[in-house]
Design a protein that fits this description.
7 strands, globular, 161 residues
Length: 161
């Protein structure tokens, strides 16, 4: 994925297809996703209930459930109530035991892709899209699950974190 100085995706490509690595290529250990989207930050969820009937909505902006969330036929929507990586990282650690049935891909889609769709925004990553990128680190890529060490951070090629 290539982004310009304004966080616009200029190109999507596979490094395996090129003979030479592009200059200034950064490699990350983890999964890159679109930015996390909170429904609660964008709409009154109470007035949005009709749209949520086709989803398994998990609101993490208040009390964290003390029971394991069962995987159902409906896609998961995870609402952290924020897009702050610092707060989300705290919530992810609390989330591990209650959503262990869900793959990391279900969780990422649940807090990026499906909320964007519900809000009528472009979901996914496409060329010419301006977007913050999130790196999901310390994910168990063999089992495809989050761990107690999983955390997120914004990818900003101009600031070292």
């Amino acid at each position: 994925m290539e982004q310009d100085d304004h966080q616009v995706i200029t190109r999507l490509f596979c490094l395996d297809d090129g003979n030479v690595e592009a200059s200034q290529t950064l490699f990350f250990d983890g999964i890159i996703s679109a930015e996390i989207v909170s429904l609660k930050q964008n709409v009154r969820v109470e007035s949005f209930q009709g749209h949520l009937k086709d989803f398994q909505y998990l609101d993490l902006s208040g009390d964290i459930p003390s029971f394991r969330i069962q995987k159902r036929d409906k896609p998961l929507v995870v609402d952290f109530g924020t897009n702050s990586p610092k707060i989300i990282n705290i919530l992810i650690h609390l989330l591990v035991p209650i959503i262990s049935e869900f793959s990391i891909f279900d969780i990422i889609a649940g807090c990026t892709y499906y909320p964007s769709l519900l809000l009528g925004r472009t979901a996914g990553l496409d060329e010419n899209m301006k977007i913050k990128l999130i790196l999901w680190e310390n994910v168990d890529l063999i089992k495809k699950v989050i761990t107690s060490e999983t955390c997120i951070r914004e990818i900003n090629r101009f600031v070292s974190t």
